[in-house]
Design goal:
Elements: E1 8-14, E2 19-30, H1 37-44, E3 49-55, H2 59-72, E4 76-80, E5 85-87, E6 90-99, E7 104-111, E8 125-131, E9 134-142, H3 149-156, H4 159-169, E10 176-181, H5 192-195, E11 201-203, E12 224-229, E13 236-243, E14 248-251
Parallel strand pairs: 2-3, 9-10
Antiparallel strand pairs: 1-2, 1-13, 3-6, 4-6, 5-6, 7-8, 8-9, 10-12, 11-12, 13-14
């Protein structure tokens, strides 16, 4: 059984003036499950832009925004996908929350348009952001968990379609970042089509070292990650890590 509680992926992008910290976080049913929103907001306040998975309604985002503004003394904003993604009774939204002094929303790119209705359990969702002189499309994903690993591997093999879709949607914007909960380590063979892409798409965290999911006693797997193009996203400083309540691990 998985317990995803307040563990973040850290992505840094360097500008002439400053550094912007981008994170991804599976919120474990934000807006529905009972949470200490103040403590969650204290962790979120350490980042400039956070992509959120498992958002159940907008109410949780409103509470986060209010707490973040109290904690930081700065203005924050959020965006939630126009509709929930999923099948059957369980569906969830994708959302983003950011500090307005550091990041601005240019335009929602929307959901990935599937070639087949069964390509993804939850279609990835993207938004076009700007931070300083850096424009980028930030795509969030929450892959199927599935009782059989084969289902997860098949979805992983389709993220190359997601990357190509958002690259073509915003043709002048070559910086496409895909992040989220993939329910597989990034070095799984399912991602091979993505990582052999001519635009040099690589995962950021090391799946053998950077565990991101909280189990009963410790961190237990590396299902969460970022995929970026080393060819185009040259603003990436190479600094990354997993944020833990108790300990912060930073790679330099």
């Amino acid at each position: 059984m998985r317990y995803i509680i307040l563990f973040f992926i850290l992505f840094s992008s360097l500008f002439p003036e400053n550094t912007v910290l981008i994170a991804s976080f599976n919120t474990l049913r934000l807006g529905k499950n009972k949470k200490d929103y103040y403590q969650v907001s204290k962790v979120l306040s350490k980042f400039d832009l956070v992509g959120l998975q498992e958002v159940m309604n907008e109410n949780g985002l409103k509470i986060l925004k209010g707490n973040l503004e109290k904690i930081t003394g700065k203005k924050w904003e959020y965006h939630i996908s126009e509709k929930p993604a999923g099948s059957g009774e369980y569906k969830e939204y994708f959302a983003y929350i950011w500090q307005k002094e550091k990041v601005s929303l240019k335009e929602p790119a929307g959901y990935y348009q599937e070639e087949k209705p069964s390509d993804f359990e939850r279609e990835p969702y993207g938004v076009w952001f700007k931070a300083g002189e850096f424009d980028f499309v930030y795509v969030l994903a929450h892959s199927v968990y599935g009782k059989k690993e084969r289902e997860r591997i098949l979805e992983a093999s389709r993220y190359i379609l997601v990357y190509n879709f958002f690259r073509k949607m915003v043709p002048l914007e070559k910086d496409v970042i895909i992040a989220g909960d993939f329910n597989l380590p990034a070095n799984n063979r399912g991602f091979r089509k993505l990582t052999v892409h001519p635009e040099q798409i690589e995962y950021v965290l090391n799946p053998d070292e950077d565990l991101t999911t909280l189990g009963k006693k410790s961190l237990v797997n590396s299902y969460d990650n970022f995929f970026i193009s080393r060819k185009h996203t040259k603003e990436f400083t190479g600094r990354y890590g997993v944020y833990n309540y108790i300990k912060i691990i930073m790679k330099r």
